[in-house]
Amino acid sequence: MINNQMLTETLGFLQNYLQLSNLEREIYTETEKIHNSHGLSTEKFHALFFLYVAANEGEPLGPSDIGVKINVTRASMTGVIDDLEKRQLLERTGHPVDRRKVILKLTEKGTQLVENQMPLITEWICKVNQAFTPEERNTFSLYLMKMRQTLDSLKVIKNNHS
């Protein structure tokens, strides 16, 4: 039961949380428009993007690696990969060392798609980024990290009492 003192102490944070939640939804909607204009969901573009980065760094990535980076379940990741493979944006290949693993690689078509979308996304992100000083960006990052750590600790508590 929430009492008046708890409500008073958390009201300011709750208002900020709601604003952050609405802002996150707006950001997602705007980036989704960019991805949709190329026939992709945000998750599919992120998968292609991380494969693009990995290819440039010479780091092979498998489905589970990408799933962790884009925060989707294994089942969802399978659907993402199947669709991107069907559209000839990526291909599955065998791991050079471990035959049990699969590596994902962008096709030329997938590489071109990422390179075509990146200027729009980069321009959008740069404009938002320029609204903040380097100090403000660092402070914001620290706040996000602190919130992540707090939420992770609450999950542990909740899991132990379930």
UniProtKB/TrEMBL annotation:
Keywords: DNA-binding. The keyword DNA-binding applies. One of its GO terms (molecular function) is DNA binding. Transmembrane segments: none annotated. The keyword Lyase does not apply. Residues 4-149 form the HTH marR-type domain. Signal peptide: none annotated. Pfam families: MarR. This is DNA-binding MarR family transcriptional regulator. It comes from Paenibacillus qinlingensis.
